[in-house]
Amino acid sequence: MYEKKLIVVGLPMIAVTYGLSRFSYGLMLPYINDTLKMDQYTSGVISSLSYIAYCIAIVLAMVFSNKVTSKFIVVTAGLTSIIGLAIISSSSNAGVLGLGIFLAGLSTGFSSPPYANIIDQNVEPKLQNQTNSWINSGTSIGTAFTGLIAIIMADSWRETYFIFMIIAIFVLISNYKVLPKNQPLAGKEAGRFVKEEWKSATPLILASLLLGISCSAYWTFSRDFMLNNDSVPGYLGEWLWVIIGLAGLVGGAAGAFINKFGLMPAYKISVIALSTSSLLLGAFADHIVTGFLSPSLFGSSYIFMTGVLIVWGISLFKSNPSFGLGVPFLILALGQAIGAVFSGMIAGIMGYQTLFIGASIIGYISLVFKQKKLIS
């Protein structure tokens, strides 16, 4: 029954670090700009700090997984989230805001890898895939909650981030009380990744990179595109992220699906659905049905896909499960960072519709990658 306790505390932590601490900036940016008077370049630089912080933290979480306990890393995630959100809520200029965004971004990278280790050491094998997938679905709840708060509180962004900070405090306390005090992995086990697991992980790494590039266009520009699309009702743009988040709850079933049908069928279904969501937005954006179907497909398939990547990675990096989660998530984030840069260029030159169609093609290409058995 311990897996249920892990889900109860782990899912909210992922919701806080991903939804409230990381993805909220894009939703709150128009209101923040009204107060701090930032130009687009400054806003973009601050946004990139979240990606940079995420990559730094996820690498640190993997490197130190054999030196400190997983519980310590989760607590670090909670603390950086709380401090970052507090700084954001009280920021008076772009520099202070950037510091808060960076610290909050660190929490995202710190939060995911340690749960893989905790689950590996405390949950029976047949339930591990499901437990990992349900905790990962916290991203969807955080995204939906953030989108809803953005609609309700509108321009009260300081108060919103203060509320986020209070929520983060309670989530950290619950994790501190529930998570076990397991010992860190042995140093020699963590090093095994370099010798035996790298070649087998190549398809996973390439797939994660392409999927990151593909989905970055949707995360970055879908809401702005829908809000400025006169062919569909304005509420579709306002509620886009709420739809994405609620649909993402379906992604929590990734572990159960993999257990029943296998990893590769789950991977193919998630990639096809994810890519099709971008294709619909690019080719059929003027249809109101697309305004519901596209974000529903994206939300459910994105969480499902990341759940598949977790299971795929952990199946390869058996000596250190935090690497199994950390490596694909790190490469996914790098792909998103690369994709965000090129997405802006393509959107400016060719328009949003061309961008989303191109993003879908990149996603479909990732279907060529298949799981390799671990070389021993």
Walk me through the structure:
The protein is mainly alpha-helical and 376 residues long. It has helices spanning 2-36, 40-63, 70-90, 94-122, 125-136, 138-153, 157-178, 187-227, 234-238, 240-247, 254-261, 263-283, 288-316, 321-350, 352-365. The model has no long low-confidence stretch (mean pLDDT 85).
Key features of this structure:
Growth Hormone, Chain: A; 15 helices; 0% strand; mainly alpha; 2 domains
Number of discrete helical segments: 15
The CATH architecture of the largest domain can be named as Up-down Bundle
Number of strands: 0
CATH-defined topology of the largest domain: Growth Hormone, Chain: A
Which band does the percent of strand residues land in?
under 5%
Q: Specify the biggest β-sheet.
A: none
CATH superfamily of the largest domain: MFS general substrate transporter like domains
The figure for the number of domains is 2
List the helices and strands and how they pair.
Layout: H1 2-36, H2 40-63, H3 70-90, H4 94-122, H5 125-136, H6 138-153, H7 157-178, H8 187-227, H9 234-238, H10 240-247, H11 254-261, H12 263-283, H13 288-316, H14 321-350, H15 352-365
Main location: membrane
Protein name: D-galactonate transporter
Membrane topology: Multi-pass membrane protein
